[in-house]
């Protein structure tokens, strides 16, 4: 299996096809094809500093914030403390292919991204139909709910009321 070492966001990542990695935020939308042209190594070929004509294509899955990192500074014996938090924006990408020799990303990778977008568009339409059917059935269920509530009230009326707790006698009463 071939692998590549790419550089992005000031860091280096060893990637292979179908790998999912989290990198610093990219300016792209979910489902877009992103290319990394700073390839430092492909298989046994080592670049000086980059491999000529090498390219790594990836699909952007999502962009979201990382877990909060707490920065806490304290100066001892000075009663000085400072607390701060930071959430880095990360992009999750799926590596689709590693290309050499100046090749461009294939249409297969772009079609795969379009396919995921079309699935996302169809899903809300399917969810809306069952809600409409449930709304039609809801008025039929309301009389049954009223009967159940009335039955609970009848059983509550049959039970005797709770007695108040007995009062404790004061010490003065005992003497």
SSE blueprint and pairings:
Blueprint: E1 3-8, E2 11-16, E3 20-24, E4 33-36, E5 39-42, E6 45-46, E7 55-65, E8 69-75, E9 80-86, E10 89-99, H1 107-158, H2 171-174
Antiparallel strand pairs: 1-2, 1-5, 3-10, 4-7, 5-6, 7-10, 8-9
Descriptive report:
It is elongated and about 100 Å long. Residues 116-120 have low confidence and may be disordered. The chain has a four-stranded antiparallel sheet, with no helix packed on it. Strands 3-10-7-4 form a four-stranded antiparallel sheet. It has helices at 107-158, 171-174, and strands spanning 3-8, 11-16, 20-24, 33-36, 39-42, 45-46, 55-65, 69-75, 80-86, 89-99. Strand 1 and strand 2 form a beta hairpin. It has a domain at 3-105. The chain is 32% helix and 36% strand. It is of the alpha+beta class and 175 residues long. The longest helix has 52 residues, at 107-158. The chain has two helices and ten strands, in the order E-E-E-E-E-E-E-E-E-E-H-H.
């Amino acid at each position: 299996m071939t692998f590549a070492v790419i550089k992005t966001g000031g860091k280096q990542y060893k990637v292979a096809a179908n790998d999912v990695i989290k990198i610093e935020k990219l300016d792209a939308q979910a489902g877009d094809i992103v290319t990394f042209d700073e390839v430092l190594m492909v298989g046994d070929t080592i670049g000086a500093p980059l491999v000529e004509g090498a390219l790594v294509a990836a699909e952007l899955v999502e962009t979201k914030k990382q877990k909060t990192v707490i920065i806490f500074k304290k100066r001892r014996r000075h009663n000085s403390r400072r607390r701060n938090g930071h959430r880095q924006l990360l992009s999750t990408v799926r590596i689709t292919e590693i290309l050499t020799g100046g090749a461009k990303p294939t249409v297969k990778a772009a079609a795969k991204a379009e396919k995921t977008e079309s699935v996302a568009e169809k899903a809300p339409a399917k969810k809306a139909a069952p809600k409409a059917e449930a709304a039609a059935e809801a008025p039929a269920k309301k009389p049954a709910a009223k009967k159940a509530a009335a039955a609970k009230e009848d059983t509550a009326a049959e039970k005797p009321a709770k007695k108040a707790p007995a009062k404790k006698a004061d010490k003065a009463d005992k003497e």
